[in-house]
Amino acid sequence: MTIDLSQFHAIFLEESFEGLQVMESSLLNMIEGETDVDIINNIFRAAHSIKGGSATFGFSNVAALTHVLETLLDEFRSDKRIVTKDLISLLLESVDCVRDMLSAIQDGGKYNESSAIEVQNKLQQVLTGEILSINNPDEAEEIESDVQGWRILFSPYPSMLQNGNDPFRIIREIQSLGSVKIEVDLEKLPILAELDPEDCYLSWEILLHAAVSKDEINEVFEWVIDDCDLKIEPIGSDVVIQDTDNEIIEEMLSTAANARDDVVKGDQESESLSRLSPEVKHKRTTNSGSIRVGIDKVDEMINMVSELVITQSMLGQLGEDFTMVDIEKLKEGLCQLERNTRELQESVMRIRMLPISFVFNRFPRMIRDLSNELGKQVELRLSGEQTEVDKTVMEKIGDPLIHLVRNSLDHGLEKPDIRVANGKPEIGILHLNAYHKGGSIIIEISDDGAGLDRDKIRNKAIQNGLIADDDILTDEKIYDLIFQAGFSTADQVSDVSGRGVGMDVVRKNIRELGGSIVIKSTPGEGSKITIHLPLTLAIMDGQLVRVGDEIYIIPLVSIIESLQIKPEKVKSITGKMELYKLREEYLNITRLYQLFTLTPDSEDINDGLLVVVEGDGAKVGLYVDELLGQQQVVIKSLETNYKHINGVSGATILGDGTVAMILDVPGLIAISKDRAENTVERVA
Known about the structure:
With about 675 residues, the protein is α+β, with helices and mostly antiparallel strands. The protein has 5 domains: about 5-140, Four Helix Bundle (Hemerythrin (Met), subunit A) (Up-down Bundle), CATH 1.20.120.160; about 150-265, Alpha-Beta Plaits, CATH 3.30.70; about 295-350; about 355-535, Heat Shock Protein 90, CATH 3.30.565; about 540-684, CATH 2.40.50.180. It has 20 helices and 22 strands. The protein has a 6-stranded mixed β-sheet with strand order 14-18-19-17-16-15. The protein has a 5-stranded mixed β-sheet with strand order 6-8-9-11-10. Helix 1 (about 10-30) runs antiparallel to helix 2 and helix 13 packs antiparallel against helix 17 (about 505-510). The longest helix is centred in the middle third of the chain and has 26 residues, at about 295-320.
């Protein structure tokens, strides 16, 4: 039967992207002038796997590029070429190009063909000695100037298929080396009734136009050299090679395979070999997204399911002849069911958890390129790479982190001469750290650079009309100004930063994830940006509160404490703004019934409760009528099903079927700040 190889595309692409990551990381660890065999072997194996898979699935352009890349790596491995900074940059450029091509395959789009051709030509020029000559010229294989390509006569023995070898894959591999013209010899093909599907009857003449050596061609046939007659001879400039259309080649291979399958099925009326369709249709699969899961997590989930089945069986038997005598057993069974369900839920959620190294791994390359562009020396330190976070959170935090790292590198870290003049080492430190704290993941981006210039930020904010000249602001509020839309302190616009586009989007994206971001900075010593994110966007622990007839849910990770209000600690400003003195600080009081236009049990501040919450580095007290229980809730997007509501991040369905809103704590704090500022303005 015919195997639809497209079903394996997603797995191939996933493994290829992982291989490219290995290649990139290994290349960044290469040192100019040194040949680390282990590193080169890692890169070579990844390139070889991508090349082989690309050839198998018919992605000939990818296979062609990776073949040339593999050839260059083999010269490193055999000490024919030394490692240079320029070559490392070229190999990294090649990795980017292959990634672009594979991404186009994955998305069903088009890649930058001219860029791919340019990269491949650069690699070919290196191999042919036109630039960066090899270390041992005497060992280089000479390519005669009058040799334009090769004529390959490939005649497999009938038993080749029985040994597990497929001539079609070999032809695809040859096609990846350059332009080809292929003619198939059908002379030995018997009539259909006498055809043995396990024998090979075809042979091929292949004209290859490519600047490759004979050894490279022999390498393609290495595994079948004892199963075929093979002749390889050079051709000169008098031979014109017209590339055989890829679609024709694919159709020839597909037709031959279909004919073989027809014989296996006993279809004596097959006309597969005698008829070729005028058009060839190609089918691509769309990547639906996947994650790799450790077997330990799968085993844990299976164990939980087993426990759940046992509990269900026990409750089923109990219900057959239930009497009031069995009420205690029923309660015990329901408690066990609740426990098993919760553990199963946690096991399922852990399947979605991935180490944040998937995000962190993109930064070494970015730091290398940007530091070279900016003329800075930077050491990137990574810690907490194995800290796990939900796959959805990880996908959405990648772009904000990139922007924050670029800003830190551009604005924070100084150039070597400036650092030396300030008594610092030439090499700046940029540190990415991740860890769990409570029910959140904390990501820190810190540097030992110049820190934020408080006066410069303030003056720019006054110039932009964001604050008044006589406004008195704390350092925290000054630093918070950089998150305003269009704000920038860069003296010159560059490709790295300075257009004032990004930091406001960064905070917006982090808030959409239910997170917060805080900046701390010390002039001359550096800055630290701390991001708080939920571990997952699907389920959260929440505190249920009642306001009038409505029930709201406050994320448990945002709650500092809940307390009975003491009248003597409440201060009022012009009757419009209320503050509560909690130990040594004053908190804004936000009455939720006013915000959501509800009728509370009582408007007397003494009759309610205060829930102190924190977000974006600030605190506020939420006035509610009653505290209810705590429970895990499934988060439903409000924007997807309705529209965005200020102060609300989502909704959930409670056990009785009613809908409860989940409060957006950072959003509520922002509303509270706006009201406080407006009140102060009116008083002034």
